[in-house]
Amino acid sequence: MKQRLNFLRHGGHKPVFMLMMIVGLGVLLSQPTTAQERNKRQRESLLTARKWTIVNVKKKKLTKLKKMDGFRLEEGNELSFAIDHKFGYKNNDYEYMAGKWVLDGNKILLVHDARDATNRLENTHFKVIRLSKTELYLKRLDRPKGKLVFK
Amino acid sequence: MKNIKLIFFVVASTVILGSCASRKVTRLDPAEQIDISGRWNDTDSRQVAEEMTRDVLSKPWLERFTGQQQRPPVVIIGVVINRTHEHIEAETFIKDIEREFINSGKVRVVENGFFREKLREEKEQQQVNASLETQSRIAQELGADFMLFGVINSTVDQLKKEKLVNYKINLELANLETTEKVWLGDKEIKKYIKN
Predict the structure, then answer these.
(1) ipTM of the modeled complex
(2) Which of B49, B62, B44, B56 minimizes the C-alpha distance to B148?
(3) A:B CB pairs within 8 Å
(4) How many alpha carbons lie under 13 Å from residue A92 in its C-beta half-sphere?
(5) CATH 3.30.70.270 fits A49-150, yes or no
(6) Tens digits of per-residue pLDDT, B113-171?
(7) What is the CATH number of domain B39-131+141-194?
(8) What is the pTM of this model?
(9) Closest Cα in chain A to B68
(10) Residue B185 forms beta bridges with which residues?
(11) Of A84, A90, A116, the CB nearest to B54
């Protein structure tokens, strides 16, 4: 008993307390990351599970060839995300877009070749408004902005 | 004697009843992903076709050629060598790529060596047997600008009941005149199989 009191009096509990604090904080901080990762993996598996077809284009500008720089988005266009983070887009004019996709929170970044003879990569940003097994609702964040419903 | 007859009857009836066992056949959506053995299947083939098609048709070689020549390029399909441990029919995804080339109207496709010979035989026959007005003319074939060919490789890592298979498909498009490679497409498919 005397020894224990001496141990506490001389501050021997401090390293133990510090260690517990560090472990506790580590556990606390790692929890949300695991949950976030799980959520991200879940969303990615939903995205890659099927080929998505546009069923509704909410803004007319997206369907205009001139406004969209030669690559318009229309009903019937197909978008697919692969497990190896490659994506493919085919529109009704048989114009193709291919490259890599990155899911960052609720935003999807599509990295693809520029639509001319130059060797340049360009990005297109989308916001995921709704994602389920049967529906993907995206908002194009680049100009012209607009919402697209995929089934 | 009676016993032999009985044994024969039992064996015969077992065979007959066994052959009459019910078989269930279900029609499925061809796009549905079903893996049974873990070997190369229709899903892999479709994935390769889709990825290669959109890649080859979205790269700058097409825009460059069309811009310079003011006409769509003509492509001939060469060989796709299978260097995997399995039998893989490359024609299944090659046909999908050809179809998209033709449907897009951006690339023209000519027949490969085997079918070209068949067409030439038919054309020769026409020179003798068909009327002058309906004969196909000789030496009017479309010369190809590019040739598409490739190779499929695989690596297998196996221990007891676990197996890891990695398929790598490489397709190349080369200019026939200059031998310049204008496009290289690759697709990797990794499978973890646990028995």
Answers:
(1) 0.71
(2) B56
(3) 42
(4) 13
(5) no
(6) 888 899 999 999 999 999 999 999 999 999 999 999 999 999 999 999 999 999 999 99
(7) 3.40.50
(8) 0.76
(9) A117
(10) B171
(11) A90
